[in-house]
User: Fold this.
Amino acid sequence: MAYTEQCRDVSELNILCQMLLEKALIEIRSVGINPLIVETYRTQARQNYLYSVGRTVTGTKVTWTQASIHTSKNAVDLVPQRNINGKMTAIWNAGDKETKKIIETMVKYGFEAGANWAVSPDSPHFQIKNVSSSAKSYSEDNTNTYITKLIQKLLNTKMKAELIVDGKWGAKTTRAVNKFRAQQGWVEDGKVGIQTLKKLLA
Ligand SMILES: [Zn+2]
Assistant:
């Protein structure tokens, strides 16, 4: 794919990010919203190209960074699309009701929403920061506040673990994760790996 084109393929994302996104998309669609995946994985060549726009290449600046979470397969840009005057139209408006619902749902599934940034908000952008692109498991060393909160919330729901949900992955979280994994027959390596996350989201 040429670096001037965006990739919209969900399967190009990190496997765990993919699972959370798919779950969020089901919920978004269930309330009648038609989400448009604008971009998923971005090669570094494309990020560098985007950075050059408005700098060394003519155009309006589209990005402030050469280090995007899109390049680590843990980000997606998502907007609602609606039929306006007979034409399917992408809505680029952070104040839009359907956009707000998408943001709320993505946050619920562990994504950090660019729309909520105090400085340079980026409305259609959602990311999972500090997680490696090839990660097959979330753990104390491979997580962030949003993902940790999600896992704690899911554990609380699944087994009334009575966690203190403070966004930190401490000993209590590890104990609860291990207890849950034991209940599932220790099917997965790592901490919250693919199988464990699937079971937590089920
Ligand atoms: Zn983005």
About this structure: The chain is about 35% helix and 15% strand.
